[in-house]
Amino acid sequence: MIRAYTSNNKEELLILLRLNTPQYFDVSEEADFIEYLDHRLEDYFVVEEDGQIIGSGGINYFPESKLARISWDVVHPDFQGKGVGKRLMLHRIEHIRKNPAIDFIVVRTTQRVYPFYEKMGFKLEKTEKDFWAKGFDLYQMRKILKR
């Protein structure tokens, strides 16, 4: 089940992030995630199975640039490779398509997971070494929405 995030989910999401650190996130990024959840959140969704949150991911909007940005994708390690991230991404793409002001979706990720976004139709725009933290390079990718 995919549903909207509520602030009651925050601690469970921090646990999810920690389970993915240091493989997919640097320890320094937890403070950024907290800042995001507390102050930068626009649309954020959680994936729940049997009452447990097993994934989450958000969307931020930049209508002046006609784009939406995928933000803070996190999937429980036990559920990676089982379609959770794909379902969550397809849910957000459909959610974004409902907004006529948005023509593009951007994701800023790392070299560790960019192949997932390639499979979802995103194209690499640029890279920047050690952008997020040492050993965590920026891979900025874009998807054009076909209406």
TrEMBL record:
<protein>
    <submittedName>
        <fullName>GNAT family N-acetyltransferase</fullName>
        <ecNumber>2.3.-.-</ecNumber>
    </submittedName>
</protein>
<dbReference type="InterPro" id="IPR050769">
    <property type="entry name" value="NAT_camello-type"/>
</dbReference>
<keyword id="KW-0808">Transferase</keyword>
<keyword id="KW-0012">Acyltransferase</keyword>
<dbReference type="InterPro" id="IPR016181">
    <property type="entry name" value="Acyl_CoA_acyltransferase"/>
</dbReference>
<dbReference type="InterPro" id="IPR000182">
    <property type="entry name" value="GNAT_dom"/>
</dbReference>
<dbReference type="Pfam" id="PF00583">
    <property type="entry name" value="Acetyltransf_1"/>
</dbReference>
<dbReference type="GO" id="GO:0016746">
    <property type="term" value="F:acyltransferase activity"/>
</dbReference>
<feature type="domain" description="N-acetyltransferase">
    <location>
        <begin position="1"/>
        <end position="146"/>
    </location>
</feature>
